[in-house]
Amino acid sequence: MNGNYYPVSMSSPRHYTICIGSRKPIRSLPADFLSLTIDSSLLLGGHWWGKSRSFAKGVSGEQVAPLDLEHSQLVAYAAQLAPAMLRIGGTEADWVRYKMGKKALRKLRGAKPASHRIGNSNDRPAYELVLKKGVWKRLNRFIKESGFDLLFTLSAGPADRDSNGAWRSDNAMRLVAYSVQKGFRVAAWEFGNEVNGFPFLYGPKKRVSASQYSRDFEYFSESVKHIDPQAKIIGPASAIWPIIGEPNPIIKKLCVSPAARHLDAVSWHYYPQQSHHGPIAVRRAGTYRMLSPGNLNDIVRWNRNIQRYLKKSREHPTSTENWLTETAHALYGGEPGLSDSFVSTLWWLDELGVLARNGVDKVFRQSLIGARYGLLDQESMKPKPDYYASFLWKKLMGNLVLETGTTIGTNKKLRYYRHTTGAYFAGSAAEALLLINLNRKTSAHVEITTPDAPFSIGHTILLQADGGFTSKSMLVNGVPAEDDLVFSWGTKKVMKKYKISGKKNERITKELSLPPLSALFYLFARPEN
């Protein structure tokens, strides 16, 4: 497409005034606030979301080849999003046998008495995937080379439960013990994936009640901590749906149970809509559906519930964090032509801004690679618009979240978020505004005012689709985003190419214009008070 393409406003621009106030931060984010996932299905060659529309037990009917973790482009692109935590999870995480042998477990378990739960049960269902030592070693090399920390979801599925439905530790503890023995650091172990969805995946008889999960979680935590005391313990990775919330709820009960004293983070999943690759939907994916402020704000309501449950958990002697361990533009691998295009980008930047401001400690994007919603195309290894947006968020939006200020004007279709700036434009007085214009036909004219001295500007970075809204390429200040934006970021050549000023004392207008369906990073500095 033409690199100089800009959407044409079909009507007079909407006018807004944003008054920037105090620099007092609302909260501080960890450096790995934006984190990532690779699905167990893709890692192990399971039923990952491909082109097929066949569907069974919550996953695709199509089986894929295992992911090549040694692919040089995958490692290179992943490293540019560090620091981050990488979650290995997904539906098929509850179907995995860990083929690690028993020697490490016998050695590290030591004199601890064997639990009545340890052992085999002949009536347990068979595992469907196997994690072998070679794959585990390659995964840990990939983690190290990328600069990530590892969050691994251990199976809590039917194959790891006895005839009474209680979880048994033998399978999972082999992996934990082997990892400790070999020096493979796992930052956090997660107990199960969307256990609240088991009755829908495996039938009503496989339902795990909130009370049962809480008992299992306590046993799981004690078993892991005996072998790997430094790792964090998290769960329950509940699926929370738009409109209806958490079916077969577990989180509330877990947070008030005795098991909560072991709970380092509550994990949950949220997809704002469902693609046409799955049969069940409460909000089907559409081109403009996630431009609705109401739909964008839906996640705030469910997060507010999580925060309320966490207050109960924090009555125990632990500080439980809030981790959204799966999220993407649409469930079931994403919607073709939408989740892999710029359509997803405005939603993604907005969700990051919303959750940063509302108490979420980590947001795990499903996924780094693969399906429609992956940041990288699985076949070409090329970045999609959401990859570039994630990269720019990491570079430009700092870890201190600031008050947004006050707004004059009808602002439902103008969304904005304010942080200190990221590493590229460092300085204690440097700030970043992320503005998003959700209007389909109308430009946003924004005037920035401050009550104190005038400020100098570092740069403005405008993001748009390279062509129509469903384009799979993105413009950065009118220039198509390419590899050099990522791998040569900060060099004079790249800053010039993408029209990004690097002069900290450059005085420019405080009036900004956002075309329809665009996002803009606005970075500036003010004199220290």
Automatic annotation (TrEMBL):
<dbReference type="GO" id="GO:0005615">
    <property type="term" value="C:extracellular space"/>
</dbReference>
<protein>
    <submittedName>
        <fullName>Glycoside hydrolase family 79</fullName>
    </submittedName>
</protein>
<dbReference type="InterPro" id="IPR017853">
    <property type="entry name" value="GH"/>
</dbReference>
<dbReference type="GO" id="GO:0016798">
    <property type="term" value="F:hydrolase activity, acting on glycosyl bonds"/>
</dbReference>
<dbReference type="InterPro" id="IPR005199">
    <property type="entry name" value="Glyco_hydro_79"/>
</dbReference>
<dbReference type="Pfam" id="PF03662">
    <property type="entry name" value="Glyco_hydro_79n"/>
</dbReference>
<keyword id="KW-0378">Hydrolase</keyword>
<dbReference type="GO" id="GO:0016020">
    <property type="term" value="C:membrane"/>
</dbReference>
<dbReference type="GO" id="GO:0031012">
    <property type="term" value="C:extracellular matrix"/>
</dbReference>
